[in-house]
Design brief:
Elements: E1 4-9, H1 13-26, E2 30-35, H2 38-47, E3 54-58, H3 66-74, E4 84-88, H4 93-101, E5 106-109, H5 114-125, H6 132-141, E6 147-148
Parallel strand pairs: 1-2, 1-3, 3-4, 4-5
Antiparallel strand pairs: 5-6
Length: 151
């Protein structure tokens, strides 16, 4: 089975551990790289031998936040086509709309339970590639309170 490379930038260690554990439970072929802020994210991203197929960015990180990371990614010819999903504890509609306007494929509100996280990540990671946009739309319109997309 082909490996999937995912990158998570999130400064909350508990959230990062839960996220990585969920990915391990979903699929042994997922490699998850992590960074605790935007600066570290770009440093590690530049050192990878293969680009990630999907990037998750937390909005509230020190040094360089998720907003700045998203803008920088979408203006970089090497990374602009990598799908980005914003993750945050905030469920403010304005943040959701702005994230998608800036180039994220969707906005993912961090769920409260491990099982809910598994459910959303499983749907997303099984469809990394061409089917990802459709899956995100289906999650949103299927009643998921965690996904927002206007694509």
């Amino acid at each position: 089975m082909e490996q999937k490379i995912i990158f998570l930038a999130d400064d909350d260690r508990d959230d990062t551990e839960m996220f990585c554990e969920a990915l391990e439970d979903i699929d042994d072929n997922i490699i998850c790289h992590c960074a605790i802020n935007g600066e570290e994210f770009f440093r590690k991203l530049g050192m990878l031998s293969e680009k990630p197929q999907l990037i998750f960015l937390d909005l509230n990180m020190p040094i360089m936040d998720g907003w700045e990371c998203l803008k920088k990614l979408k203006h970089d010819k090497n990374y602009k086509n990598i799908p980005v999903i914003i993750i945050s504890t905030s469920s403010h509609k304005e943040d959701m709309v702005n994230a998608v306007k800036l180039g994220a494929i969707c906005y993912f509100v961090k769920p409260n339970s491990y099982n809910e996280l598994i459910e959303v990540l499983q749907a997303i990671t099984k469809n990394v590639g061409e089917g990802l946009i459709d899956v995100v739309k289906n999650l949103q319109y299927g009643g998921s309170t965690y996904i927002y997309s206007v694509i």
